[in-house]
Every structure is written in structure tokens, then in C-alpha cells.
């Protein structure tokens, strides 16, 4: 995925610094520049820009006016505002018009790269969620119909719908989770379990039941696939929380499927772009919650 950038700033040195930072880090392609918002709109729309870095104060048409005009013309990309103005009312107005972040002048290269990367991650997450929504819309069902029909579906369909909400339905570990939950429902469906035994024992029982040739090897592989899927679910959920803390999915799943402290830790790691995670995944809680919810809705 190559991102397309457009820079609007009446200061040539600022445009050059932004251009160099994006180009040096190979964040994407700079498809255009302008010294004022006035007249730049057609070029932006034609070049299908993903991210616009735009100055707040410009002589002919300021940043907020430009954003308004672009939104009216159907532009759906992201804006990063560049400004040395710190007036609360102007900043609030900019956020209300769809600005993702501010870069403060004088421009700091580290801040520029940090902000751009965060916006890029948000775009990736949005596109991933759009893919899920498209899959659901392909079935010609509204979100209300999906929610209403969820109670009537089979246990397998419900499990898949939850995994789709987490954005991991395409992960190989998700297929393991669907089959595992189906197996557990057949085995414990009539019992009121308060917890599972050790996960390794659960996996071993399941793999043995499938008559795999090398049980230990398949148990280890299955455990790794599921752990990767759960880690991706936590990553997607934390990113969703950063984007909108009041998002219904975030509120529904954050403390139910994970320890909320782990979700908060993952959110901090994403914000700070930490490469090594300190979160200790509670895979057992995720699977047990998925089992209980599927059992309730099946």
C-alpha cells in the first residue's frame, strides 16, 4: 500500500522540509504541492491523495476553508494541520472539520514522522474494517439485520461474526478458533463451566479427536496460530480505541475478551510506536469468553 501525499503551505522551506522527511523515510509518494489552498482542490481530487498536510494560515484561502471546500467536493482523505497558532477555538474548529493531528511550527522532523505514521496506521485500520463491512454488505444485509440475525445463526456463524468484528476473520488461527469452539460446545454444551482446564490440555484433546498423525506437533502449531490471531485482535481493538474511545465495538469487547489493563498497554505501545510488546496475552480468557458468548447466542 503506497500512500499519496499532497502538501499545501505558503512557506517554501516548510514544504521542502515536509517533502524531504516523507521522501527520506519512504512513507509514500508526494503527488503534488501548492503554496495556497485556493485552486488546489481539483488537483488533489484528480490525484486521489490519501493524506494532505495543510497550513492553517495562508493568504488567499486558509486551511479550514480549504478543508471545507474539499469535503463539499467529496474528498474523503485525511488532513494533518500545520500551524503555529495555538488559539483553542481555531484548533477546535479544525478538529471539527476533520483534521486528524496538528504539526506545530517550527517544524520538527521527529514530530512530523510520528504524526504521519499514526495517521497512516489509522487509514490501514479503517480500510481493514471497510473490507469487513463490504463482506457483510455483499450479503445484502444491513448492520441492523446482521445484529438481529446473529441470534438465529448457528454457533459457527456467530463465532465467525465475532472474529470479523475483531478484524481477524482471515487469519489462519481464526479457522482454528471456529473449529475449537464448535468442538467445545459439543463436549461441554450441557455443562455450566466456570473455566477450562489448561489450554494445552484443551488443544491436545481437540487435536487427538481430529486423529492428527503427530499430535504434539499439531498442538504446538495450533497454539501458535491462535496466539497470533488473538494478538492481532488486541492490536486492532487497541487501534480502534485510539481512533474512537466511545466506539461501540471497543466498549463491547475491550474488557470482555481481554484484561482492560492489557488493552490500555497496547494502546500506549501503538501511540509510542514500540516495536516490542510488553503485553502478556491472556489467550485462555479470549477463548473461554468466545465459548460462553457463542453458547449463549447459538
UniProtKB/TrEMBL annotation:
Domain of life (superkingdom): Bacteria
Coiled coil: none
Pfam families: Response_reg, YcbB
PROSITE patterns given in the database record: RESPONSE_REGULATORY (PS50110)
Gene Ontology terms: biological process: phosphorelay signal transduction system
Name by which UniProt lists this protein: Chemotaxis protein CheY
Species: Aneurinibacillus soli
Lineage, uppermost ranks: Bacteria, Bacillati, Bacillota, Bacilli, Bacillales
Gene from which this protein is expressed: cheY_1
Amino acid at each position: 500500500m503506497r500512500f499519496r501525499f499532497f502538501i499545501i503551505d505558503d512557506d517554501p522551506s516548510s514544504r521542502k522540509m515536509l517533502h524531504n522527511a516523507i521522501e527520506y523515510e519512504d512513507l509514500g509518494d508526494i503527488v503534488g504541492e501548492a503554496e495556497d489552498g485556493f485552486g488546489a482542490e481539483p488537483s488533489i481530487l484528480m490525484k486521489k491523495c490519501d493524506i494532505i498536510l495543510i497550513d492553517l494560515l495562508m493568504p488567499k484561502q486558509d486551511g479550514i476553508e480549504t478543508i471545507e471546500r474539499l469535503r463539499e467536493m467529496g474528498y474523503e482523505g485525511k488532513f494533518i494541520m500545520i500551524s503555529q497558532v495555538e488559539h483553542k477555538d481555531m484548533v477546535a474548529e479544525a478538529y471539527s472539520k476533520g483534521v486528524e493531528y496538528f504539526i506545530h511550527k517550527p517544524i520538527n522532523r521527529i514530530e512530523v514522522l510520528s504524526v504521519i505514521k499514526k495517521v497512516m496506521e489509522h487509514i490501514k485500520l479503517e480500510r481493514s474494517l471497510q473490507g469487513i463491512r463490504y463482506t457483510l454488505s455483499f450479503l445484502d444485509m444491513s448492520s441492523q439485520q446482521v445484529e438481529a440475525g446473529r441470534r438465529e445463526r448457528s454457533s459457527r456463524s456467530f463465532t465467525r461474526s465475532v472474529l470479523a468484528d475483531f478484524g481477524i476473520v482471515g487469519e489462519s488461527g481464526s479457522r482454528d478458533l471456529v473449529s475449537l469452539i464448535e468442538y467445545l460446545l459439543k463436549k461441554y454444551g450441557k455443562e455450566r463451566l466456570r473455566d477450562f482446564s489448561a489450554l494445552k490440555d484443551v488443544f491436545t484433546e481437540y487435536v487427538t479427536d481430529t486423529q492428527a498423525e503427530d499430535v504434539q506437533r499439531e498442538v504446538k502449531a495450533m497454539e501458535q496460530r491462535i496466539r497470533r490471531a488473538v494478538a492481532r485482535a488486541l492490536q486492532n481493538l487497541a487501534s480502534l480505541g485510539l481512533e474512537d474511545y466511545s466506539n461501540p465495538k471497543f466498549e463491547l469487547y475491550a474488557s470482555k475478551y481481554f484484561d482492560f489493563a492489557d488493552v490500555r498497554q497496547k494502546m500506549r505501545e501503538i501511540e509510542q510506536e514500540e516495536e516490542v510488546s510488553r503485553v502478556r496475552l491472556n489467550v485462555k480468557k479470549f477463548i473461554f469468553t468466545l465459548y460462553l458468548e457463542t453458547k449463549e447466542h447459538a
